[in-house]
Amino acid sequence: MNYYRLSGYWHTYRVLESDGSGVVRRAERFIEGTSFTAIETLYEFDRKLRTLVHDGIERVEVALRSHLSYVLGASSPIAHTDRSHFRDGFDHETWMKNVTSRIDRAARRSPVIAHHREKYGGVIPIWVLVDVLDFSDLSMLFDGMRAAEQFAVAERLGIIIDPSRLKPNQAAKTKKNHPLARWLEQLTVLRNIGAHHGRMWNRTLIPTSTTALRTVEGLQLLPRGQSEQLFGGLTLIAKLLGTASPGSPWAHKVRGEIEHVYSELPDRSEREMGFPEDWRAMKLWSNDKPATAPSRRPQ
């Protein structure tokens, strides 16, 4: 790997010091005792974490495709083409242009799209369309749907909000636009980071409200107010996989990597990823026998 890429991992091992005016910056020298092995281990942890996040989001994406097609398809096989099926303010025209581009792209390699073009004059039903859309397209589609249909999709995914635990203004806001829309946007960012092999472990993400999702069973330990660190996204993936892929060992694998690799690194803390102290007690993350990850102890 090149020097600049690796420097993103040793940056946090550089000493913090003040310049005399109260501004604190990273110095050009390292914390005493820092080893190249520790930096290499952090890099390998992040690489494995990206792989796990990609695997988890892939399963979530497949489930999202399915439930979007069921809910929209209940109205019409081509409900996605009808502007009246979406909320005010949704840029349906631009979204449809993107859809056309995805269909044209898929037509070069998809016999299914070719079949619908030949036999049905290019009319693509929603249950076919969802399989050629990108995750970002699905996220925007969910965001543009009417609230009742958003809630139907979210509940199919196991996200059941308890409005009785929200303040009246919070409940009213939630009923207008399901908060999962903003979380799908954050998962899109995570997916893109992974797809482009970017650094993931200590990234700051799009701030996403946690108020309503904290009423969902299993998500009570999401940070209060908003989530912009990795813990929130990982916890949501684990929750969604409980419905999309019951019995999946994904959460155990993530916990294993954190406990057996990351936590053994000097000068690193799980708080850097937004993990609260009692995260292991969460049902989503609890594991009497954590998955064992290859341990690479720094020398």
How would you sum up this structure, described in words?
- It is a single chain.
- With 299 residues, the protein is mainly α.
- The protein has helices at residues 3-10, 36-73, 92-107, 111-120, 126-129, 135-144, 147-156, 168-176, 180-195, 230-244, 250-260; strands at 14-18, 24-30, 208-209, 226-227.
- The chain has two domains: 1-34, no CATH class; 35-96 and 126-281, no CATH class.
- A two-stranded antiparallel ribbon has the order 1-2.
- Helix 2 (36-73) crosses helix 9 and helix 2 packs across helix 10 (230-244).
- 31% of the residues are buried.
- The model is unreliable at 289-299 (pLDDT under 50).
Compact overview of the structure:
This protein is mainly alpha-helical. Helix content is 49%, strand content 5%.
